Structure formats: structure tokens, C-alpha cells
């Protein structure tokens, strides 16, 4: 994946859009109707969807979860090993692994099959395998589902690590127009007063 310039902000925003695009893919497939993007006070960004959740089953050959492969595996060239092609269709290229590798910290939460699972990575390397940390129940009795990724870009790689609200708003507005029926929300928690824009078509 080409990440773009690490000095002018284009690569920084490409990272965020890669995570957003994975969530939008769930909407395109009919599995998701809401994507939330939040710019956090600590310089990180969070993307959350209510789709199926990144697969977390153990990969029989690699001996790690599908989620860990998705978040850490960057193959040489364009071809994946034959066995990883059998992963569920949430495995969409190497974009998430690249985002992970360029992030000081990346937190992954997955709500799937009634479980809440979590994995933290630093510069692309997991602190520990993904683990169940709770249930996916909600007060209304329904099961929560989906994926949440929070990442903080590395200041050692990017000269500029501050996300631009206007740039992101423009991109999300376009995505919302192209995905009628999916709600896309952008929140900014970095200022004295929080702000939120919701694109609901």
C-alpha cells in the first residue's frame, strides 16, 4: 500500500482513510449501517463500525488469530500465501497492517459472536494475542457487533501528526453520498468544545 508523503499530511490522512474504507466496505456488503470517526484529544483517531467484526478465529496453519494476521501481515509483492486467501472477506489487502506498523499505539476492539475481544499493538507488533475481555451484550438485550480501531501515528515517521478536520469531513461527506443508507459521523474531541457532523442520507 502506498501511504503517501510523511511530511505534508497526505500520508497521515491516507492512514485514516484506509481504516475508514474497511468500515465502508462492510456497509457496501450490507453488513453495516453506521461508521463513526473520532479525532481524539491525545492525537489518535478512532474508527468504529457496527459490521460483522474482524474475524478472530485461530488460523490453522499460522497458529495466530485471523485478526492478528489482518493487523500485522504484510506480504512481499502482491500475492498472499495460498492459505491466507481463504480468510473471510474482511481481509482486504495489507492496508490495516501498514497503518498498524506506522502507529505508536493501535488498539483493536472486536465485538463478534457475543464476545468483546481486544489487542494492543505498538509499531505493528502485538503486546499479546487478541483476547476475550468481556461480552458483547448491551443494555437493550441485543448483542453489540463490529470493529473499533484507535491508532496514534508515529511522530518518528510523520513530521505532521495532527489530523485536519476539513480534509476528513470532505472525504466522509463524499463517502456518505456514495453509500446511501449508511450513517457516517465525524467527531472532534480535540478542542475546548467537542463538535460532531453527521452525514445521514
From TrEMBL:
Lineage top rank: taxon = Bacteria
Keyword list, A-Z: ATP-binding, DNA-binding, Isomerase, Nucleotide-binding, Topoisomerase
- Enzyme nomenclature, EC number: 5.6.2.2
The residues forming the signal peptide are: none
Record field: catalytic activity? ATP-dependent breakage, passage and rejoining of double-stranded DNA
List the InterPro entries hit by this protein, alphabetically.
HATPase_C_sf, HATPase_dom
Record domain Histidine kinase/HSP90-like ATPase: where = 7-157
Presence of the UniProt keyword Kinase in the record = no
The text of the family note is:
Belongs to the type II topoisomerase GyrB family.
* Protein's name according to its UniProt entry: DNA topoisomerase (ATP-hydrolyzing)
**Organism ancestry:** Bacteria, Pseudomonadati, Pseudomonadota, Alphaproteobacteria, Hyphomicrobiales
